[in-house]
Amino acid sequence: MDILLIVQIKTNYDSWKAVFDADPGGRVNFVDESRTRVGKVDEQTAMVQLFDVNMEQMGKAMNDPESPAASAIAEHVVKHEIYKIEAMAPPAQ
């Protein structure tokens, strides 16, 4: 599954991005990391596209309080909004 995350950041974009890039939750194990895209909306918001996501593994990594990602998320993220991305045909003329 391909998803879009809107990340509401507690700290600031650069601090959050450094942690995201360090990948404390092992994102490389449940997405096609070669296709991951990250964009800065403003200092408190980022958009992240993840492709070929194993949602079960991602859920375990993001929700495990013992995960190395848990403290990073608690420190840097207010919340994640998650959207499914699907291909669609162009509008008809």
Describe this protein's structure.
With 93 residues, the chain is α+β, with helices and mostly antiparallel strands. The protein has one domain (2-85): Alpha-Beta Plaits, CATH 3.30.70.100. Helices cover 30% and strands 31% of the residues. The chain has helices spanning 13-22, 55-63, 68-76, and strands at residues 2-9, 37-42, 45-50, 77-85. Strands 2-3-1-4 form a four-stranded antiparallel sheet. A hairpin with a 2-residue loop joins β2 and β3. The chain is globular, with a radius of gyration of 14 Å. The model has no long low-confidence stretch (mean pLDDT 93).
What does this entry show, briefly?
By secondary structure, this protein is of the alpha+beta class. The chain contains 3 helices and 4 strands.
What is the CA–CA distance across the termini? 29 Å
The helix fraction, in percent, is 25-40%
Number of strands: 4
CATH architecture field: 2-Layer Sandwich
> Uncertain segments of ≥5 residues (pLDDT<50)?
none
The major β-sheet equals:
4 strands, antiparallel
